[in-house]
Every structure is written in C-alpha cells, then in structure tokens.
Amino acid sequence: MSTPVSPQVSFDETLIRKYDQSGPRYTSYPTADRFYNHFTEADYRRALAARREKPEPLSVYVHIPFCNTICYYCACNKIITKDHGRSAKYIRYLAREMDLACSLIEPREKRFLQQLHWGGGTPTFLSDEEMTSLMKHLKNNFSFTDDAEVSIEVDPRKVNDTTVALLGKLGFNRISVGVQDFNEDVQKAINRIQSEAETLAVIRAARANGFVSVNTDLIYGLPKQTLDGFSETLDHVISVSPDRIALYNYAHVPHMAKPQRRIALEDVPQPEEKLQILSLAIQKLSDAGYVYIGMDHFAKPDDELAKAQREGTLHRNFQGYTTRADCDLLAFGISGIGKVGPTYVQSVKTLDEYYGALDAQTLPVLRGYILDRDDIVRRAVIQQLMCQFELVFTSIEKQWDIVFDDYFAIEKAQLPPLAEDGLITIAPDRIRVTDRGRLLVRTVAMLFDRHLREASSQGKYSKVI
Ligand SMILES: C[S@@+](CC[C@H](N)C(=O)[O-])C[C@H]1O[C@@H](n2cnc3c(N)ncnc32)[C@H](O)[C@@H]1O
Ligand code: SF4
C-alpha cells in the first residue's frame, strides 16, 4: 500500500486514513491555545527587561493586516479595505510600539536582528513610501546582522516590477508569493482571480533584484479543485522553479473564518479526491527534486532549509521552519505572537484595542504564557521530532539532566502501536519517524504534549492531512 516517492517522504494511504486526526502544528510548544488572559503587560515588560542581562539575537515579525479584497478561504488575521488611509495611521502606531518595546530592552548596538518577516494580511497593501518609512524605522531601532534573513509575503495581484525592485533596495532578500491555484474555476470559487502572467512577473522581478529565495504558497482541498486541474497548477509552479513551496491543506473553519461560509461544501473535494491530490503533489514535487522539510514545506536540496535539515540545525518557530537557532522573537502589530526568553506573548487582535493601548503608553498585550521547566524539556523533544524526524534520548538527557525512560515513561509506553503501524521505528537510544510517517509527524509530537493530554481538546485543531 506504500508508494515510495522520495528518500524523505512517502505517501501511505492506509496510515494516513488511520491517523488523520486533528492536531496542532507546533509552531510553538505549548501551543497558542494554552496562552492565558491573566498574563499582563507587566509580565511582558519583565520579560523584555530581562534581555538587558542577556541579549539574545532577535527575530522580528511585523503584522500588516490589510488586504484589498477578500479571498473566501482565508483564515489569516486580516482587515479588508479599499481605504489606503488606514495604513498610514497603522504604521505610525507600529513605530510607537517599536519605540516602547525597544526602550525596555538592551541598547541598539547590542540589539542584533537576524531575521525579519513582514506578514499579513498583505504587507504590500502599504504604499512604497509607507514601506520605506517602516523599514527605516526598523533599521533605526535594530542592528541588522550582515546575513539577516529579511522576508516579505506578497500578493502578486498587488505588486509590480517597480515595487519588487524597491523591496530589494529596502533590504528584503526572501519573498513569499501567494498562488494557491491557477485554475480559473477554483479562482472564481475562492474570489481570487490572479493570472499566471502576473505571478510569474513577480517571481522574475524578485530574481532580477537579487532575492536569494522565492517561496510560493499553494493550497490543496480548495473548492472546484480536481486532480487534473491541480496537476496543471503544479506543472506551472514547478516550471518557474521556486526555491521553496508551501503546500497547505485547506482548513475549513467557518465558525472562525466567516468568509469561508461563501464556500459551498459540495464544491470542496471529497476526502478520497483530496488524498489523491496530496499524493499527486508529493509525487510531482519529489520528481522535480524537492525535498520534504516537514509539515507543509518543500525546498530544493540546495536551499538553506534543506541544508539545515541535513546538518541537524533546522528550527521551528512562529514563522514556521527556520535556520536560525532559538532567537527571541519580537512581534509588532495586531495579533502578532512573540517569544522572549521563557515567555510567549500575543498582541490584541483589533485596531481599536491596539491604538487604545499605545495611546495609553502600554504594550498591546492580549494574553501570554510563561513556560516552566517541563514545558521547556517537552519543547526540545517536539522540536527534534518536527525538524529532524528523530528523537535521540541521550541528547535530551544530557541537555536537561533527566533519565528519559523515567521522565517520559507514559509517552514511551504509547510508542509501540505507532511502531507496529510503521509510523516510527524504535531503537534503544532513539525513535525515528519513517518515510511514510513523515506526513503524520505531528501525531508523534502530540504524544509528548502534556497539555493536550490533560485537556484532551483535540477537536479544536485542523486535521493532520
Ligand atoms: C497572509 S497570506 C499570504 C500573503 C498574501 N496576503 C497573499 O494572499 O498572497 C498567507 C497564506 O496562508 C495560506 N492560507 C490562508 N488561509 C488558509 C486556509 N484556510 N487554509 C490553508 N491555507 C491558508 C495561503 O496559502 C496564503 O498564501
Ligand atoms: S489570502 Fe492573502 S490576500 Fe487573500 S484575504 Fe488572506 S491575507 Fe488577504
């Protein structure tokens, strides 16, 4: 029943059917749904102040929530508006938030920024002047390292060659291009009409302007999607040879993302067809030489993510897979999630709350979480599994001064059935996720999630596949 499609990942329908349960994506452990509301602004200030003693390198995330039009499938935190005046005010407040947070941490000359990401919404909703002014403010506040990864999400319908050239001049060196699907019927059903020509133009312009990595986002499971149609989309995407390809599973959560109510369920491919589409996509991407990084991500073998995975230095944070070791993450803008030392923090989700907090000279904290030692040990275990598909017991023992078999006695007792099904192999010193288990890696990670076990709230998550 198993079809090997690459040395890294293989598609096993029986296994997928058996283990297709809901589960978190582990961009953090504990996951964001464990954050609590009694986490206060004072807690966040304390975490920031602690950086003065030990300033770790920084990753910065800036959330730009605005979009011109609504894509019906979208589950991101965004504000649909045609009024470009709204972004002028927003970037003024972003600057204020940055000034306030920076006043609490180490001085600028010790504030090394290794990674910057602008996400959304649609960061290119901003005018060229606004993007220039925002980047200037970031550069005034942080010391960018020479090899900083500076990335941006762009919607090709909203970007021309001049803007891509400007992004290059501003220092962006990685670009993520939303595609989803090139098929016309799908595009109509999701309210996102985007020609192949405008998409390719952005990718070409990015290459011409020195971007070192181009990512494209695709989604499988969208309304009106068929095996043949998505096969064509894949061919077209592969022909422009992006360095990375994200292949997301359409998450249908209309209770949380209201515009999804405009998607008729009868138009969405049935589980059988969806699995065929996923299988085909994995086959095509593997044939084209892409390496499976994990979760929804594929990369060319010479891309830094693939190299980091081979060298055992891949990490995972709120922005997904990354080559940068555990830096602190400062998030600016509504709904952003940050991590400072053992503290996670999330910002308020509406503009009114955001502006109100900053008018009162306070950081716009919504909720957060302070990790205890057990959380930190489990985070290391889950990171290893998600990034290396392997868990070496001695490395955790050494790092955390525990006896793995004692500390994780409950979890170890649950492993044999997964091994019998071929999801993992168990050796005396390690477990390894098999090629056919890789698509289901979060099923293995979930065993080590103490909060999930205690709350058994799996119903809230999207399906694994
Ligand atoms: C913030 S958007 C990317 C930037 C830009 N706004 C655009 O659409 O081109 C991030 C990505 O999340 C993915 N996404 C959004 N909603 C999703 C859903 N319900 N299920 C799966 N993926 C989704 C899409 O692939 C999208 O490109
Ligand atoms: S997919 Fe991108 S452009 Fe479409 S609504 Fe979501 S954030 Fe906006």
Can you walk me through this structure?
By secondary structure, this protein is an alpha/beta fold. The chain folds into two domains: 1-30 and 376-465, Arc Repressor Mutant, subunit A; 32-328, tm_1862 like domain (pyruvate-formate lyase- activating enzyme). It contains 18 helices and 21 strands. Strands 11-12-10-9-8-7-6-3-15 form a nine-stranded mixed β-sheet, sandwiched between helices. Strand 9, helix 8 and strand 10 form a beta-alpha-beta unit. Helix 4 packs parallel to helix 5. It is globular and about 60 Å long. It starts with a strand and ends in a 10-residue tail after the last helix. S-adenosylmethionine binds next to strand 6, strand 8 and strand 9.
Total helical segments? 18
Large-scale geometry: globular
Oligomer: single chain
Classify the helix fraction into a percent range.
Answer: 25-40%
Strands ordered across the widest β-sheet: 11-12-10-9-8-7-6-3-15
Write the CATH architecture name of the largest domain: Alpha-Beta Horseshoe
Q: Show unreliable segments.
A: 1-7
For the sheet with most strands, the description reads: 9 strands, mixed
The domain tally reads: 2
Total beta strand runs = 21
- List the ligand species: S-adenosylmethionine, iron/sulfur cluster
CATH class descriptor name of the largest domain: Alpha Beta
Q: Give average pLDDT, whole number.
A: 93
Query: What is the fourth-level CATH superfamily of the largest domain?
Result: tm_1862 like domain
Distance between the termini: 18 Å
CATH topology of the largest domain: pyruvate-formate lyase- activating enzyme
Strand content: 15-25%
What is the CA-atom radius of gyration, in angstroms? 22 Å
Structural class: alpha/beta
